[in-house]
Design brief:
The chain is an alpha/beta fold and 239 residues long. It has six helices and ten strands, in the order E-E-E-H-E-H-H-E-H-E-E-H-E-E-E-H. The protein has helices at residues 45-56, 76-88, 90-105, 122-132, 175-187, 220-237; strands at 3-12, 15-24, 31-37, 60-63, 110-120, 139-143, 161-167, 192-197, 210-211, 216-217. Helix 5 (175-187) links the parallel strand 7 and strand 8.
């Protein structure tokens, strides 16, 4: 195994974005790709690490960029400022993540008929919106996602399979939202799953999350179980 990593510039209009990608150079031919959508802080080492882990499983991992080349938040206040325009304008969010899908299709190692997307927190919302717009992808996986439905889409049908991996005690996606999400997915005709992890709050996959008052705490068991669930899901959608 020889994992190769690099970055690539791509565009949404005149906004320059920078994706990080990883693949196993010992494998031949085109292979499935998995987009990785970052949390509210921007395209950081966390999602780059996930792209590399996906490369170790034989995929092209592509950590996308929602904010712009080199744009990273420095803490909760700035992170919220960066995220808010996309929460207020879901058409902008949907266009921005669609640009990443176009970019990954252009990579020479990618089988453009076998693409999925995963996302964390804000990134989970992004990949859900990608599926909500009926993008031509096999499936999406969201980890401790924000679940607020978009206000610019009505009576849509989803073709991508969906796996949501949520903490049962997540204050940013409470139980009422989990129920509403299930009803939304059913109304959209989606092939959907929801795994809810007990005694688990927000950001449970992030080892540096340790702010109980804010509702973000790492949970090792949920982290391990959710990643395994994702691997099983990807094997199914690419099978």
């Amino acid at each position: 195994m020889a994992i190769v990593t690099n970055t690539v510039n791509y565009y949404d209009g005149d906004v320059v974005l920078e994706g990080f990608f990883a693949f196993d150079d010992t494998l031949s031919g085109r292979r499935p790709a998995v987009l990785v959508s970052h949390a509210w802080g921007g395209r950081d080492s966390f999602v780059a690490g996930k792209a590399e882990k996906l490369a170790e499983r034989g995929y092209v991992g592509f950590a996308l960029d929602m904010y712009g080349k080199g744009v990273l938040g420095s803490g909760p206040e700035e992170n919220a400022r960066l995220m808010q325009p996309f929460m207020q304008d879901r058409a902008l969010l949907q266009r921005r993540i669609a640009a990443a899908l176009t970019a990954v299709r252009c990579l020479p190692w990618v089988d453009d008929q076998a693409i999925a997307a995963i996302g964390f927190c804000f990134g989970g919302l992004c990949v859900l919106d990608l599926a909500r717009t009926r993008a031509d992808i096999n499936g999406v996986v969201c980890f401790h996602a924000l679940l607020t439905p978009p206000d610019n889409l009505e009576r849509y049908k989803m073709t991508a399979k969906v796996l949501a991996l949520q903490g049962f005690d997540d204050p940013m996606a409470p139980v009422e939202q989990l129920v509403a999400f299930g009803r939304e997915m059913t109304a959209a005709g989606a092939d959907w799953q929801l795994h809810s992890y007990g005694n688990t709050v927000h950001a449970f996959t992030n080892p540096v999350a340790n702010d109980p008052a804010f509702g973000t705490v790492y949970q090792a068991d949920a982290d391990r179980r959710s990643w395994q669930a994702m691997e099983n899901f990807l094997a199914e959608v690419f099978g």
